[in-house]
């Protein structure tokens, strides 16, 4: 029995991380993702182009309800980060733009402000302590994994930032959309948020929710 358990332990270890045994593992996005990442494209098919991503050099479209745009370079957009424990994104915030309260369940985040002023903050899970700071060009701020956080353009012009994550697929849950952009019943939203019916219905109407 012991040798069978040892075999399964070895099988788990050998499949749990491509980065442990390979120089790299460019993701084969045609196959399914797993907790260990995507399967690898055969090394013979990998070229230097696979390790270059040019999508962060162009400003995102900020004509949205949040007056902001996030351009990700996660594993789905940049397969070379598969298994390497890192990824990037670009934040474009027009005047008055906001990245709403959200979490990344699978990663911590670091923000670098490149242009403008961004007021950013997060809320601790233990005591709901709020940590907020207005950042200027060259400033960086850390947002610990899984904690609610936000970024707001607090300057007179547009703002630009780049964020890095310690995961190729950090995940994203935006609080407003989780509450008001789906079919969760208004009654349950009201009971769990202490908001009145008119407010919930109005927010569902803005964000496209039903129920």
UniProtKB/TrEMBL annotation:
Superkingdom as given in the UniProt entry: Eukaryota
Cystine connections: 25-40
A Pfam family that the UniProt record links to this protein: Cupin_1
GO molecular function, one term: auxin receptor activity
Annotated Mn(2+) binding sites: 102, 104, 109, 149
Cellular-component GO terms for this entry: apoplast; extracellular matrix
Binding site for oxalate: 104, 109
Protein location: Secreted, Extracellular space, Apoplast
PROSITE patterns: GERMIN (PS00725)
Limits of the Cupin type-1 domain: 54-201
Keywords assigned by UniProt, alphabetized: Apoplast, Disulfide bond, Glycoprotein, Manganese, Metal-binding, Secreted, Signal
Annotated signal sequence range: 1-19
Family under the similarity heading: Belongs to the germin family.
The protein's name: Germin-like protein
């Amino acid at each position: 029995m012991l040798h069978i358990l040892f075999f399964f332990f070895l099988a788990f270890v050998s499949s749990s991380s491509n980065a442990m045994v390979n120089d790299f593992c460019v993701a084969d996005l045609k196959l399914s993702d797993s907790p260990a990442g995507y399967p690898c494209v055969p090394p013979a098919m990998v070229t230097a182009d696979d390790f270059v991503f040019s999508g962060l050099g162009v400003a995102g479209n900020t004509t949205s309800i949040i007056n902001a745009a996030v351009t990700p370079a996660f594993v789905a957009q940049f397969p070379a980060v598969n298994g390497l424990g890192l990824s990037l994104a670009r934040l474009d915030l027009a005047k008055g733009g906001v990245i709403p309260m959200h979490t990344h369940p699978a990663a911590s985040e670091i923000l670098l402000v490149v242009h403008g002023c961004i007021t950013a903050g997060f809320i601790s899970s233990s005591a709901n302590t709020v940590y907020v700071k207005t950042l200027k060009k060259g400033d960086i701020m850390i947002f610990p994994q899984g904690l609610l956080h936000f970024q707001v353009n607090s300057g007179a012009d547009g703002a630009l930032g780049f964020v890095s994550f310690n995961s190729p697929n950090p995940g994203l849950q935006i609080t407003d959309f989780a509450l008001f952009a789906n079919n969760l019943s208004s009654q349950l939203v009201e009971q769990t948020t202490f908001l009145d019916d008119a407010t919930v219905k109005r927010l569902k109407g803005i964000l496209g929710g039903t129920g």
